[in-house]
Design goal:
Elements lengths: L1 H5 L2 E4 L2 E2 L4 H15 L4 E5 L1 E2 L13 E3 L6 H15 L7 E3 L1 H9 L6 E3 L13 H17 L6 E3 L2 H11 L4 E2 L19 E7 L8 H12 L5 H4 L1 E7 L5 H10 L6 E5 L3 H10 L2 E4 L7 H9 L3 E4 L14 E4 L6 H14 L13 H11 L5
Length: about 375
Amino acid sequence: MPDALADSRPIFMSEVVEFGGAERSILALAHWLHNQGLPHYLLTYTDHCNIASYSKDPLTVVELRPKPGVRSKIASLRRHFAERGPSALNPLSSGYQPALHLTLARERDFHCLMHDTPSLFNDSRSLANNLRIYLSNAIIGFGFRGKGKMIVTSEYLRSECARDFGADAEIARMGGFDGSAPPRIRPSNGKLNMLSVCRIEDNKRLDWILRALAELESAPIPLSSRADWRVDFAGKGSLIPKLKELSASLGIAARVRFHGFVTDDELEALHHDAHLFLMPAIQGYGIPAIESLQRGIPVLLHRESGVSDILLDTPWATVLDGDESNIVSAMNSAIDKVIEGRHHLAPPPSLPTEDEWAERVARLCNWVE
């Protein structure tokens, strides 16, 4: 097995807890590598969700299963790469913690997909936590003094990596699904179905959406007199009860639906009926916005979502900047475009695909000739 792994491309995720955005990006990369006939494997301490079951192709998963504790985990990494032996195919880490652990394991010249930097973490900012992040950043920065590439999806993350790690990151813009069907034109016709797809947590700013809609509904010309509107929230999370209470207190509960976890078919049905996609959170990139646009759904998003870099000059996207005080005007502008069909006057923006992203990542890692 070690001899085979020496000629295989390692992708390291410290823990596979549940299938989310990072896991999906890894499978997109694995799918491209598989189609090119390039051996690869996913290395992890523990796979809690059977990630191979989500893959389109056979996926080799190597679980180290160390004893609890950081020291045991780092030791298991060292053993793995010692047994793997010398290889020109340097590993690729997926995320912040894996990059930290590979540095502590004394791996050199590894690459990193930096999905999020500390400014995007939803942690408390106590003195002890700030010190921990400062030290971790310094360690990761030390790990990138070699030939390894740090790879990000946006200008925002690139500037964050320069500040936090002193690393000059490369940008590879992530794409959505590789569907061939053209975007579907969906006129409003007196209806306005808005959709948000994410974990229902505080940092997603879904309360901003509810308060903005309540303000638009209480305006001299209520939103409901312009269109029969509703908003759907797809995703599970701890904030659902609190947001339900908020929508009731704002008097808009009848027009707000929380679906919790939805299947792929249910999610596709929600997209099919949607006229506007809402994503006001600050995040490293924002694949849901790409996928909505690919379906022909215009989006409202925050400037500090990395995907906004490529959506500033299209009427298909309304880009919110600043704090909550600006969301009502941004929401009103996005809704006007939908009701009046103004976004249809321009062609949909040119968007990257998963395969284009995966090929760029593989080439940055020197995994292809």
